[in-house]
Amino acid sequence: MEYKTAAPIFEALASEARLAVFHLLARNTPEGLVAGEIAGQLSIPKSNLSFHLKNMVQSGLVNMSREGRNTRYKANITLMLEAIDYLTDECRPGEGQRPPRHRAASVPPELL
Q1: Backbone angles phi, psi at 73, to 5 degrees
Q2: Which fold has domain 3-90?
Q3: Quick one: which of 22, 65, 66 has its CA closest to 42?
Q4: Among 7, 28, 80, 107, whose CB has the most other CB atoms within 10 angstroms?
C-alpha cells in the first residue's frame, strides 16, 4: 500500500462518528446495514450520516449497494486489514521486534 492509498483510509477514520460507523458495520459483517439502521443504532441524523458514509465510500473502507429505495453499506474488512499491515510494515520499531501481521488470509472468508 502506498501513502496515496493509505492517507484517505486513515483520514476517514479520524472522525469519531466515522470510526463508530465502521465499527458497527464491521460487527455486522458480512450482511452490512442500510443507512436507516446505522442512523438509528448510532443516533446520528441521516443528513450527517450521509456525509460520513460518502467519505467512507470514497476512501474504500465501506462498500455500498442499492436495494430498491435503500442503500446497504458493508465494511471493507480486506482493505482495513491491508491498512493494518501497512502500519505494521512501515512503523515497526526494528527488524527483530516485528509485531504479528494481520493478513486477510487469517480471516474467515465469510467476513471478507
Answers
A1: -115, 140
A2: Arc Repressor Mutant, subunit A (1.10.10)
A3: 22
A4: 80
Among 70, 51, 66, 64, residue whose Cα is nearest residue 12: 51
Element of type H or E holding 66: strand 62-67
Using pLDDT thresholds of 50, 70 and 90, give the confidence band for residue 58: very high
Distance CA 85, CA 80 (A): 9
Span 6-52, pLDDT tens digits:
899 999 999 999 999 999 999 999 999 999 999 999 999 999 999 99
- How would you classify the pairing of strands 33-34 and 62-67? unpaired
Question: What does pTM read for this prediction?
Answer: 0.79
Domain boundaries, the chain: 3-90
| Exposure on the CB side of residue 2, measured as CA atoms within 13 A | 1
DSSP code for 110: G
> If you search the block for the grid coordinates 450482511, which residue do you land on?
31
